[in-house]
Every structure is written in structure tokens, then in C-alpha cells.
Design brief:
317 residues, alpha/beta, eight-stranded parallel β-barrel, disordered N terminus
Length: 317
């Protein structure tokens, strides 16, 4: 185990070193007009199976749109090293990935994937209170209790300690079910913030899902400054609608720039706090990804907002 940890620490340090080199030149690598020094990222889940079929073409296309980085996830038939190579060849940063920590997979094996991807942050898309498949867990989220979220927090603490020893940072990504009222005005997200160790556990704040459930993104950023590493940026046609992740929830997703979430104050706060990652994600509805034209328009919308956002004077982390 000690040999594994030493190996992970070595790989993690190398990844951080290569990241520093990439960031120094990244601002001028694409012909898309990007107005903020912090690159706009795209969670490649947005692109559906296109990435697995042809990662080189997919990444080349989004780089030409102006995106500066991608957030990865794993594919059954695509080696992490190949995904990394395709990103590098397209001139895209690859600093962060989602890994399936919810399952009973060996965390060491998952962190080896992170090493092969060359990232510095790993995130759990969902994290169940006990190891189980994400698909099974998502069917039960409507009945979560305070105790369940306390167990999620315990798992997050353990995973985050392992990832830190391996040279990575860890972030918990939310959906809407964390904001279900569990009684006395307490929601699961508050339990997670309270019960996780701020030295190890950061949060990838999905602004769309939080807002859809009725959570106030700006309030969380203000009250828990320092706990967030990244934003997932998406929009819905309504806010405060549902904290249940049922089949109809994704039908309310809408194109950035046409939804009801006001990203101006969110971006002002996020950039002032030096959040490292701004990531566009548009969940494929019923498994069908959005068009590449919309992927372009979503970049253009966010890029336009950043053009009128006070400049970020922090260093990329």
C-alpha cells in the first residue's frame, strides 16, 4: 500500500507540474475569442457517445469553438491514456474528471485512471451512502435521510483523504436531491458541508441542479467561501421546481442564455473567490446529446458574460 501511495504521489506531482506549463500558454491556443484568463471547460458527458466514437474529432471541434479545457469521464471502450492524448492534440487542458466512487470499485484503481488521464482533481458525480451502482442509488434518492447523508459525508471524507495522499484533490458534485427538506429546514447538502472535512473535501457546485431544487447559489458561495473548487454551468426553464431526480427533471433543462438562472452574480462571486474550473454541462435528455450548434452557442453565451465580469486576478490552481 505504501508503494502505491508513493507511486501516486509521484504521478500527482508530475501532473501538477505539467499543468503549470500548460496554463502558461493556454490563453492563446484557440481561434475562439476567449476574454477571461480562466478557460471555459466542457464536461464531455454533454457530447454523449460521440467522444467514444471519435475523441479526436470531438475535441478538435470544441477547441475550435473556443473551449479551453474538458472535464473527463471514463468510457468502457476508450483507454484513459487515449482520451488524454486526444485532448493534448486538440490543445485542450484536462485537469479534472468524474470517477465512479459510488460503486464498490477499488479506489486505488480509480486513482490509477486519474493518473493516466493526467488530471489534478477527481470528482464524484454521485456518491451513495453505501457502495452501490450509481443507477441503483439514483432510484432511492427521494427517500434519503439525515443519517444517509451523514454516511455519504463519511465516505467522502475517506475518499478525499485517499485522493490527497495520491496527489489529487477531491470534489463532490451535486444534483437536485441534496436539497430535499429533511425536516426542520435541513437539507442533505447542508449535512454534507457540515460533516465533511474542509481540508480534504471540496464541492463542484452544479448551479443548475441547485437552482432547480430551490437552492440559492450565491448564498452558498457567500456562506461557504473556500469550499468550492468548480462550477457546473447549465440552465433550466424554472427554479425552485423539484428536489426529486425523476424522469421529468431533465425535461426542464434549457440552453444557456434562454433559461431563468441569472449567472451574472454567480460568476462575479466565483471569480472573486478564485474558483479553478468553470465547466459547461448540458445533460443529454433521454440519452440524446444536444447539437454541436448549441454547444457553440452555450460557449458564446458564457464567454460573453465573462467579457463583462470584473477580471479575475487570481492564479489558476
Amino acid at each position: 500500500m505504501q508503494d502505491q501511495r508513493r507511486s501516486f504521489l509521484k504521478h500527482g506531482t508530475a501532473a501538477i507540474g505539467s499543468l503549470t506549463v500548460g496554463l502558461s500558454t493556454q490563453a492563446s491556443t484557440h481561434h475562439g475569442t476567449r476574454v477571461d484568463r480562466r478557460p471555459i471547460g466542457l464536461q464531455i458527458y454533454t457530447l454523449g457517445s460521440a467522444v467514444e466514437k471519435n475523441p479526436e474529432a470531438s475535441f478538435s471541434a470544441i477547441a475550435k469553438m473556443g473551449y479551453g479545457e474538458i472535464q473527463a469521464l471514463t468510457y468502457a471502450h476508450l483507454a484513459p491514456a487515449d482520451l488524454r492524448r486526444a485532448a493534448v492534440n486538440a490543445g485542450l487542458l484536462l485537469r479534472t474528471t468524474h470517477l465512479d466512487f459510488s460503486s464498490n470499485a477499488d479506489p486505488s484503481a480509480l486513482l490509477e485512471i486519474a493518473h493516466q488521464l493526467g488530471v489534478v482533481q477527481v470528482a464524484s458525480s454521485v456518491l451513495a451512502p453505501i457502495p452501490q451502482a450509481s443507477s441503483a442509488y439514483l432510484q432511492t434518492t427521494g427517500s434519503m435521510t439525515v443519517s444517509d447523508f451523514q454516511r455519504v459525508a463519511e465516505r467522502a471524507n475517506r475518499i478525499a483523504e485517499l485522493t490527497l495522499r495520491a496527489g489529487f484533490s477531491y470534489a463532490y458534485h451535486n444534483h437536485n436531491f441534496e436539497f430535499l427538506d429533511l425536516g426542520n429546514g435541513v437539507c442533505g447538502y447542508d449535512v454534507l458541508l457540515r460533516e465533511t472535512d474542509p481540508r480534504y473535501v471540496k464541492f463542484e457546485l452544479d448551479c443548475g441542479w441547485m437552482s432547480f431544487a430551490g437552492g440559492n447559489v450565491c448564498s452558498y458561495l457567500q456562506r461557504h467561501a473556500g469550499r468550492f473548487s468548480s462550477l457546473h454551468i447549465k440552465n433550466f426553464d424554472r427554479i425552485g421546481h423539484s428536489s426529486t431526480l425523476d424522469k421529468t427533471a431533465s425535461s426542464h433543462l434549457t440552453e444557456l442564455g434562454t433559461g431563468v438562472i441569472d449567472y451574472r452574480p454567480i460568476l462575479d462571486l466565483a471569480l472573486a473567490q478564485g474558483l479553478s474550473y468553470l465547466i459547461v454541462e448540458h445533460d443529454p435528455r433521454n440519452g440524446v446529446p444536444i447539437s454541436m450548434d448549441m454547444v457553440q452557442r452555450e460557449f458564446d453565451f458564457l464567454n460573453g458574460l465573462l467579457a463583462t465580469t470584473p477580471p479575475d486576478t487570481t492564479h489558476l490552481a
